[in-house]
Design a protein that fits this description.
The complex is a heterodimer. Chain A is an alpha/beta fold. Chain A is 60% helix and 8% strand. The longest helix of chain A is centred in the first third of the chain and has 29 residues. Classes of the chains: A alpha/beta, B mainly alpha.
Chain lengths: 466, 134
Amino acid sequence: MSENFSAFLYLTAAVFFILALRGLSSAKTSTKGNVFGMIGMGIAIIAAFAMPKVSSYALTITGIIVGGVIGAFVAKKIEMTALPQLVAAFHSLVGLAAVLVAAGAMSAPVSFKIGTLEHIMHGSLVEIGLGTAIGAITFTGSVVAFLKLQGLIGSKPMMLPNRHLINVSLGALILFALLLFVFTEGHFFFWVLALASFALGLLMILPVGGADMPVIVSMLNSYSGWAASGIGFTLNNTLLIVTGALVGASGAILSYIMCKAMNRSIISVIVGGFGSSDTSADQSSAANEQRPVKQGSPEDAAFVMKNCSSLVIVPGYGMAVAQAQHALREMCNILQNNGVKVRYAIHPVAGRMPGHMNVLLAEANVPYDDVLELEDINRDFPSTDVAFVIGANDVTNPAAKNNPQSPIYGMPILEVEQAKTVFFVKRSMAAGYAGIENELFFRDNTMMLFGDAKKVTEEIVKALES
Amino acid sequence: MYHVQSVFHKIVDISGELSDAAAMLTTIDLAPIGGCSQFMWGVTVFVLACFVGYYVVWRVTPALHAPLMAVTNAISSVIIVGAILAAGQAESAFAKIVGFSATVLVSVNIFGGFLVTKRMLAMFQKKDKQEGRG
């Protein structure tokens, strides 16, 4: 196959990938978008098989089948609540693959057309080194994110002493190893570079708290793209460069959106520390401990909701963990049949990855048009009878608006406190991920419903039916 | 492996080579394409693709951000092109092994990513149909 023809195939695949992302702009075209993505990938794989240096296929095809079966199995079995950790795990695979491909290119330079052994072109060595560094950081970073999301290690930020110093030293070591690798082509330096990058990825994500996970998951998404782009430069393959750039840009935009939704700078997220209770938060919670809250029963909530005319549901990660979306949908069905206007309000960082809550509601068959974004629903709260907050905390905390001392001050919130009555489903009085007390609990128009989100909702359903 | 002494020699050499590095970047390797180096060609493609990505992704509706992540994850596995090349060449056994491993890893991603996206999108579609009925 001529070089030009394979370049044409790569171009075609790139166009399909662009169409895939474009397709996701609306729910109607999204399925088509996904199919475009698959077609693009199919073309890319065929073009890769046709490369003149590829002489044996058995090993590769075996690899694709083995990986494909595992991937298909996981995709079929995974719970939608576990989506964030699945995506994190997937990112780690791309990162590790980038390191492996770079190592392969270094060991077989003739096949990769980047020179001969011990005489690889300097430019290619730079590209191999950078691709490896980004890939390695993506790999260990994603593994830590996965472990945190899966609950295998605590979601609280882990603070090493002198961690900034350690990170800077590791960065310097990576740079130094890269220089030595470029000028000596010593494989030893390649592995030093890779190991230091593995360590940096680990140390970068360990200090990040659970509340920042949506940002981290999208940031790692971005990194996996840049890693692919880096390898694309090594291979002089425009498809990899284009695709990597698309994915990188996509992840960067999502990170930006998530950061804006939390009023945080991306730097402060990466540097970490949100969620470690600082002194001011501790003091306020100590002061609040003795204050009374109104506690209600599911029956009370059922009675009030049955007799109201408009209801806004605010789901959070607590709902997801309890798998309460189906019970919630059932509750809303009954209320809607009673003539109550029911809508759902989604905060951009509700859940642990961008758009996670939308997927969970979709899973429970909540109509698309009933689900509203923050900007669209906030002006409606003053005319809402009941706000039903289920497993969400930080995204409704009025401290973000009126307490400049609060760590979440300035963050856009769902202004549920303006509704006539607020029901707050929560397991206990414990603070949310941001580690701060929610002023809302102590308001006159707030009623706390303590308990597991699913159990409480089911009891409300029972009370509504009786 | 490199002896400490030779490493130091290299470091000394590097200072000299560094000054050449800037010049090297512009004359980088490879066959020129349309008057520029292949590297510059790559950078051109990269920067333009970043813009395309920027404009396309902003149009994605927030409700579909989770499927967007799953899809971008799947398509970043296009790195399989490099893995296939490494696994299929006959030059280095080591490259064959790492190429095979990389192929397995990204294949998990390709199939897993596209299929989980399909599952998610089906949930959104199901609702559209229901709305049509209601």
